[in-house]
Every structure is written in C-alpha cells, then in structure tokens.
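Incident review: delayed structure delivery

Summary: a single-chain prediction request sat in the queue longer than the usual turnaround. Root cause was a stuck worker, restarted by the on-call engineer. No data loss occurred. The affected request and its eventual output are reproduced below so the record is complete for anyone auditing the incident later.

Affected input:
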Amino acid sequence: MFSFHDKSQFNRSWIQWTAIVLLAHFVIGLMIVMVLNGKLVNHILTPIFQFLGIFQIIWPQQPVDSLHFLATKSLFAFAHHDPRSGLNLWTLEYDTYTLIIYIVLSALMGWVITTYRQQAISIPSGPAIAIAVGLFFVALSVSYMTAIEHCSGATWVGFVGLYGMGFDEFELYPAYQIICAAMGIVTVVGGLIWLINSKNRGFA
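Output delivered after worker restart:
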C-alpha cells in the first residue's frame, strides 16, 4: 500500500518519464528519417498557419468540421531544405491528432517505466517489452512524413518506407494504418494484462 509520499514520488517520476519518452519519439523519429534519407534536419516549418484563413471561413457554419480540418494539418514539421532547388527534400510532420496520441502513449510508457523502476526485482521484463513493441506500432500508425523522391505530399511513414524500398505501385490503402494500429493496441493490451497478472500472482 503506497503512502501519500510514495504516490507523490511515483507521480513525479511518472511525469518525468512521460516527458523523456515523448522527447524520444521526436529524437528517434528524426534520427531514423535522417539516416534513411541521408540529409540532416535544417529547417522547421509551421504549416498550420497556412490554413487559418480557411478555418475562419468554415468555422461559422461548420465548427466541428472546421476543428477536425485544422487538427489534421501539421502543427510543425522538421525538414531538410535544399537551398539550391528551394524544395524540402523530406519532412517529418506532426498534426494535433498525432501529438495527442504521442502524449497518451508516452504517459502509458512512462507509467510502465516508473512501475518497473520501483519494482524491478519482482516484475518480469516480458510485459514491458510487449508494451514497448505495441506502442511502437501504434506510434508508427499515426506518424506522417514526405520524401520528395517518393511522394508529393505528407503521407503515412509506412507508405513512404515502402516506396523507398521500391514498392512504387503500392496502393495507398488506409487499412494498412488501421492494421498497424490494431496490432499495436492488441500487443499493448496483452502486455498490460500480463503485467497486472504478474503483479497479482505475487511477483510484485
């Protein structure tokens, strides 16, 4: 049974690890994109401001649709800008929905890490690995980028990756993102059940 002090300490650690995991989402994503595209990030964009005028026009008549419209536009994007051509050779983009999901995933992983740090000796590592893998697939399902060699606009990173491997005729079906997300959610839920059962059986 946690005391108030223990709970407060747990919550502080949880918040700290949530922030670290959220930062890791950006850093690891950028590192992977830079390695695969061979160009370092040298530009930060805020594409959402280009759509504020349209948002203001739609808002009076369709407020819900206008909010959804704005939420699907990138709040910011990391890019490699080629000064010779004036083009962004690649971008890694984050809209509102993506950020919300990243924060939720980071909070969940932060809770898992904090739990393991407090009870590392008594909890098996399998559940944490399963949860981490599941969170990776969920994050992948909501991550978007552009690569000028393979597509003209922001799209799911999975499609860009397939184009980069030579699957130029690959159809852009949203079902692939849904499958990726479903795999991740099932793995996360399975890992959480495993973790809870392990603690209830006396590992904790």
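Verification: The chain has one domain: 4-203.
Action items: add queue-age alerting; document worker restart procedure.
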